Amino acid sequence: MTYDALLLLGFGGPEGEEEVLPFLQRVTAGRGIPPERLKVVGHHYYTLGGVSPINEQNRALLAALSEAIAGLGVAIDSVLANRNSPPFVADVLADLAAKGHSRVLAVATAAYSGYSSCRQYREDLGIAIEHEGLGLELRKLPPFFDLPGFTDAIVELLLAALPAGLDLAAPGSRLVFTTHSIPNAVAATAGPDGDAYLVQHRWVADRVVDAVAVAIGQRPEWQLVFQSRSGPPSVPWLEPDVNDVLRTLGADGVTDVVLVPIGFLSDHMEVIWDLDTEAMATAAEVGIRLVRTPTVGTHPRFVDDLATRIVAELRTGSPVATEGQFCFGGCCANPRREAPVVPGLAIDPLP
Asked: What is the DSSP code string of 113-180?
């Protein structure tokens, strides 16, 4: 299969105060989140004038990818579509069909396997195609956590963020990687064999630590923690929470923590609020100097490697994934219901 359009899939976010609550209602639909909780979360957006940075960050990523793809000799129409805010997936697909496109490659702005980070985007596409009756063929690129440029960018940004005099190998220092918490039951079904969400994050963290060890001459102590839990207390989610870990480290005499958000591609709201605001406040309370490294964003190494993988698919076309491969039909099962999905591709990440 060859393609005539590239679709970058984003989570979406409000771009004005009047959009905040409708956005949050779409994000939490069917999850039983009380209105009071939405108002609390809405305050996070209101502190930024009701504008989430994520849409502009994804527009910048699309522009950078388009330039890199063109630099590799491929010309293709590239557009952005969002799950939870305009431009919505169904509207963008309808527009592509109206313009005569018929074969679309989709790339999600999430690097790891999991329901919310991978399968739900496949469902967004599948539902739109089924409901709108569009004559489009779609395929989704599998998770790309294993791109060398992804890890290289994290390492470069981490080392550049270290303040003068901070010794990561010292007993009072700690390297802490963070990602979005998800329900334990959802984590257990991630990937073709389960647990891929955790396995992939630990794989990335371990390779970052290897590179840092080469740079500083000693392997630092590190751990993977979680953030941004939103479910009811009765449902187990991945732990430990970043704030709990900071309190424990402070009690243990740790004075310097380098916090590396490997679970996110850009510095959006959950990074700005949950880390730069809440985690930073927790660290100050317990006497820890907290350094938060940037996300990969449009770092050239990351963009170039992702563009190279996209171009390889645009040029050759891969078979649809089958059982046992990433993004086969039942991969990363929907925890609530069955929904149509577009196929993933048989491009297996490394682990």
From this structure: -SIIIIIHHHHHHHHHHHHHT---EEEEPPP-TT-HHHHHHHHHHHHHHPPTT--TTSTTEEEEEEEE
